[in-house]
Structures are given as structure tokens and as C-alpha cells.
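User: Here's a protein and a ligand (nicotinamide-adenine-dinucleotide). What would the complex look like?
Assistant: Let me lay out the input and then the predicted complex.
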Amino acid sequence: MSIRYDDRVAVVTGAGNGLGRRHALFLASRGASVVVNDIGGAIDGTGSDAGPAQAVVDEITNAGGTAVANTDDISSDDGAKALVATAKDNWGRCDILINNAGILRDKSFHNMSHDDFVAVVKVHMLGTVRVTHEVWPLMRQNQYGRVIMTTSAAGLYGNFGQANYTTAKMAVIGLMNTLKQEGRKYNITVNTLAPIAGTRMGGTIFPDDVMPLLRPELVTPAVAYLVSEQCTDTGRIIVAGAGHFANVEMVESKGVDFPAADDVSPEMLAEAWAGITDMSGAEPFAEAMAAVQRVFANLNA
Ligand SMILES: NC(=O)c1ccc[n+]([C@@H]2O[C@H](COP(=O)([O-])OP(=O)(O)OC[C@H]3O[C@@H](n4cnc5c(N)ncnc54)[C@H](O)[C@@H]3O)[C@@H](O)[C@H]2O)c1
């Protein structure tokens, strides 16, 4: 099976550096026309520079590929609109969206200003919402779409000093969970990447000696497969880093049922706690109503 993206148009946000750059280079090397978006700011989201996006476009075109640069701020309404318009104006469509752009403003929650919280949520969460909202009608119209959200182990499991970032990174999974359902009949898949790589952002977390080993090139194959025509999975969260790939799921324990007609005291819960929190036989649910059905089943028990 050979995976290619001929005649496909891709938008990659934050593609001037790090992981986004790798995703853009790879998609272009396999035939996609790519909008390389990057505001070119500092890691905390301040400043801008048209250089990084243009450098990646030059790299792609020098290698015989097709790309255009876009330096809009994805967290602004006008920026998200202009970004998707760049794809539409150049090639009339958008088949692949990789929401990747991000910033960091790490501090313990106690010391974090509201502005630092909002700035991070604005890029990771609302930027993802805005750009996805702009491409959604195009994908529906074309009855085809491949959307990637980018989360993080920090979002999935928590990380000291990153309350703003972890909030935003979990939020994009909530967005995916509903869009995977709303996109299904239009052949739009929505999946989430949880990467680990020695990039500018990785450098704030990982030890110096590990950084060169965490090659972003080893993350991109997960995205490359998820956005291919061959992959029809939707709603997955895929971990990728240093050659390790894994699937993450939200699961619910079997739980403990008391008769719904009776009262339940906290002491009864204390006694049943080990059973409630026992994760053996825990299950994922494809959608909210499947989980709710399990509660309803206790009404009829
Ligand atoms: N590197 C890791 O180990 C790791 C781990 C978990 C998640 N991630 C996620 O992967 C993604 C890529 O991060 P990276 O490690 O390549 O970092 P990076 O800093 O190298 O790249 C992020 C890019 O996003 C751009 N950007 C920031 N705000 C923007 C905006 N408003 N509009 C347009 N572009 C903007 C930046 O200019 C930068 O080039 C991020 O979403 C990050 O949270 C990375």
C-alpha cells in the first residue's frame, strides 16, 4: 500500500517550525498542495516573523513540491478566515487540516495570570476551533475531510505548571468527540495526535541529552497515516514519539449498581468504593448515549 496525497490540499497550522514543518514537508513530498501557516512568533506567542513559513515553502518548492505561505494568527477570526481562504483561492478546496500551532506560558496555577491562561487557550483551543470551523463547510461540500487535533500527554494526564495548556489540550479532544460524529456522513474523519518530539516546545520539558533523539520525523508518520484516504478511523487519540505509537482511550469502570428506587448514603459508597474504582473490564464508549444507556439499564434492573 502506497500512501499519497495527489490532488489533495492540506492546511498545516504552525508549520514554520518543529512538528508542523515536518508534517508539511512530508505531505508535500507525497503530492499534496500545502498551505504552510505560521505567525513566526516567540514560544510565548509574542511577536511575528514571516520568515519561518516562507522558509518551509521554499524548502517544499525547491524539492519540486507545491506550497504557499500564510502568516495569519490562527487564534483571530480574521486570521482563520484568511488562512482557509488561502487554500480556497489557490486550489479551490481543503481536504486535510492539521491543527498544530501552539504556544506556552508555563507557571504554577497559583502564579498564573488570567491573561496567560487565556492567551494559551486562545491559540490551542480557540485557534483549533476557528480554523476547523472555517474548513468544515468546504469538507462537507466535498464529502471528504481529514482533520487532526494536536493534544499532549500533559493534556491527557496533567503536568505541573501547565494548567492553561492542559485545559486547552483536553478541550480539543472534546471537540473531536463531537466532530467525529457530525463528520461521519460527510466522510470527514477527526483524529488527535499526542506527540513527543525534541522541538522548541519539547525543549522546555525534556532533558537536553534526549532532545536530539526525539526526532519530529518519527511523529509525522502517525499524522500521515491518519490523514490518508486509506485510514477511515475517526475519533482516535494516537501517541507518537521516538518510534513509539499507541492508542489512547477514555474508559469507564464497570461500576457498582444500587437499586435506583432506594436511597444511597455516602457510607454505602465508601464500602463499595473499591468496586466502583476497579478498572478491570473497563470499557470505552463510542458516544455519550451509549454511556448514558448503562445508567438507564440500572433503572430497569
Ligand atoms: N514537542 C512536543 O514534545 C510536544 C508534545 C505535546 C504536544 N505538542 C504540540 O505539538 C504542536 C507543535 O509544537 P512544536 O513542539 O512543534 O512547537 P514549535 O514551537 O516548534 O512550533 C509551534 C509553531 O506554532 C506557531 N504558532 C504559534 N502561535 C500561532 C498562531 N497564533 N498562529 C499561527 N502560528 C502560530 C509558532 O510560530 C511555531 O512555529 C503544539 O500544538 C504542541 O502543543 C508538542
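Summary: Residues 13-14, 16-20, 37-41, 43, 45, 52, 73-75, 100-103, 123, 127, 150, 152, 195-197, 199-202 surround nicotinamide-adenine-dinucleotide (CB under 6 Å).
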